[in-house]
Structures are given as C-alpha cells and as structure tokens.
Specification:
This protein is an alpha+beta fold and 141 residues long. It is built from six helices and four strands. A four-stranded mixed sheet has the order 2-1-3-4, sandwiched between helices.
Amino acid sequence: MTNDDEQFLRRAIGLAAKARAAGNPPFGSLLVGPDGEVLAEDMNTSISDSDITAHPELKLARWAARELTPEAAATTIMYTSCQPCGMCSAAIERSGLGRVVFALSTEQLSGLKPVGENAGARLDGPALYDEARVPVEGYYV
C-alpha cells in the first residue's frame, strides 16, 4: 500500500460519505490511470436511481469497458470504499481492470451491519447439466 493508494482510498471513502448524505448506501469508487490521473469516479445511487445495480464499482467497470481499450483498462486501478460484491467483481473481471484496492473487506462490512440483514436467496443447483451445456459448449474456444 503506497501513499498514493491511501490518498485515493480516502477519496473513495469521501464519495461513500457523499452517497450516504444523499440518502444512498455509503459506497464510493474511483478509477485511476497509470499516471495517477482520476479517469472517473462515482458513488452508490441505488436508492436515488431506484436501481439495485447502481453500485459505483459496477458503473465504473461499465464505463471502462465502454471508454477504454483493453490495454488501457489493464493499466488502471480502481479504489473503492468497500470490497466489491459478487456482481461488481464479475463486472470488474470482464472489464479487464488491472487492480482493485479497497478499504473495508466484506467481512468487516458485515460486522458493521445488523445481524441477519441481507440473508440472501437460497440457491439450488447445479441441475440439468446435459441440457444446459448445449448452448454454451464451444462458445469459449
């Protein structure tokens, strides 16, 4: 962790505070290029946008995939106030970002929430492998 990493994390934490002040969940993120320039930043707007997917990490990953070449995306660093959730992690992976630096871990965040909040849906599967693989088989070659 460098001094620059800490400064950018503080900026992400500031965006999280701004999100909370606006009535949204307290999460903020920024995307930094290899020269230290902030390319984009955002905060959670899931309440104000009535969009459960309006996480800042997802919005920045989508921005990077749309606006940057794969080579440029690979040189970026995302700084975020909390460890990205599964949805955001998948988007970050697909967008090809080079590195993610976060402040609070998922475990630390969970310790700050009331017990039982967001228990999650029950997942059942895998199932019907022989049928489900047909449209997928050969796609990733």
